[in-house]
Recover the amino acids of this structure.
């Protein structure tokens, strides 16, 4: 069945796989058909939710996923039979055990991926929603660049990706824009979110009221459909989606750049960003100490370190808590950010939004045993921009040569 078509009589093992436009996908696995309430509520939160009664089909589907994080909602009985195998699937980051009545042989095993056990639907949906909101804020998409590379042909995949992101805005700006293309992506969003009344209202409000660049920051910080669509596209380097919403990306970049001038009365700034990462990702970053890191997403940060320390959640214990400490010299051109405190839902917070392609250097990575997290210190200098520009000019010359 299509994951958006709620039909009480449709068998869940006959399934049409729907593209996911968000960072998370829900998968519901049970030996009995889900109730109408379960289907409708899960689809409201995540329109790409897939429902399975066939264990093998479910596992086969999960194994095909790349660049997706899975929340698995599974019955107690099924989990006890396939737990060891389910655990080995890296795409699954959270398991919610759900049965509408307490099982006699309750699965007792504790594991970092298991969030909790639920017998009440409302408790289940509330917990899932909280975890989704936390994951959606993990917006630090970055590329790494080793300045020691002398020739473009020596670049690693990471460095090449960084250059791709830095060229992206110029490429998008050169492409034609018109109202028809904007209507097309909004129509696609309406179709995708057709089970979510709140997002449909947001889409219609945007269609009727969006007047361009001056409203772009407010729409992004609303964390509605555009926020989720854009962040996933940047994280997965999905050029088709980025092309479709290029009007908004260009507006947002220009507006942040314009607003940066309003905070230049300060000489320096220290801001923080809370993130969860795998141990493999931490080890990879350690190899790049002293190298460049480019922020490929629009990154929200805060001056309130203590506030950020309270948002880490113990439930995602397969991940490691990381606090990025970003030291900014506002006279440096590589850093473009704006104060979005007035748009924050937390009154005591002091939030800043970084423009994409901000360049920093990894200064240090140290473990903070008091707060049980890794502290990654990033700093900025003018040398980073010069280094990247050298490579971009080289690439442009190569492109001009081969196109002539």
């Amino acid at each position: 069945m299509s994951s958006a078509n709620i039909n009480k009589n449709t068998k869940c093992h006959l399934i049409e796989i729907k593209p996911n436009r968000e960072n998370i996908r829900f998968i519901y696995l049970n030996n009995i058909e889900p109730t109408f309430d379960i289907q409708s509520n899960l689809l409201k939160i995540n329109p790409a939710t897939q429902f399975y009664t066939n264990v093998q089909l479910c596992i086969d589907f999960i194994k095909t996923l790349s660049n997706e994080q899975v929340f698995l909602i599974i019955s107690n009985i099924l989990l006890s039979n396939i737990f060891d195998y389910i655990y080995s699937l890296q795409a699954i980051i959270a398991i919610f055990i759900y049965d509408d009545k307490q099982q006699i042989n309750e699965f007792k095993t504790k594991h970092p991926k298991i969030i909790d056990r639920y017998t009440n639907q409302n408790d289940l949906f509330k917990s899932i929603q909280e975890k989704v909101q936390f994951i959606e804020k993990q917006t630090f998409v970055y590329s790494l660049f080793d300045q020691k590379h002398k020739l473009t042909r020596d670049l690693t995949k990471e460095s090449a990706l960084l250059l791709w992101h830095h060229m992206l805005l110029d490429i998008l700006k050169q492409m034609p824009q018109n109202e028809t293309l904007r209507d097309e992506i909004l129509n696609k969003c309406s179709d995708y979110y057709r089970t979510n009344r709140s997002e449909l209202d947001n889409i219609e409000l945007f269609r009727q009221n969006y007047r361009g660049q001056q409203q772009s920051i407010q729409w992004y910080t609303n964390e509605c459909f555009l926020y989720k669509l854009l962040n996933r596209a940047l994280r997965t380097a999905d050029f088709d989606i980025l092309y479709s919403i290029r009007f908004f990306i260009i507006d947002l970049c220009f507006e942040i750049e314009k607003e940066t001038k309003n905070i230049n009365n300060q000489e320096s700034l220290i801001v923080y960003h809370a993130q969860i990462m795998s141990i493999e990702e931490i080890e990879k970053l350690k190899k790049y100490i002293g190298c460049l890191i480019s922020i490929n997403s629009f990154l929200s940060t805060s001056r309130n370190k203590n506030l950020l320390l309270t948002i880490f959640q113990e439930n995602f214990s397969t991940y490691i808590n990381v606090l990025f400490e970003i030291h900014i010299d506002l006279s440096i051109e590589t850093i473009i950010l704006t104060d979005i405190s007035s748009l924050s839902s937390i009154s005591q917070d002091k939030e800043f939004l970084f423009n994409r392609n901000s360049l920093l250097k990894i200064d240090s990575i140290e473990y903070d045993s008091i707060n049980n997290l890794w502290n990654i210190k990033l700093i900025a200098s003018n040398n980073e921009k010069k280094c990247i520009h050298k490579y971009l000019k080289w690439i442009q010359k190569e492109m001009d040569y081969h196109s002539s």
Summary: The first strand starts at residue 24 and ends at 29.
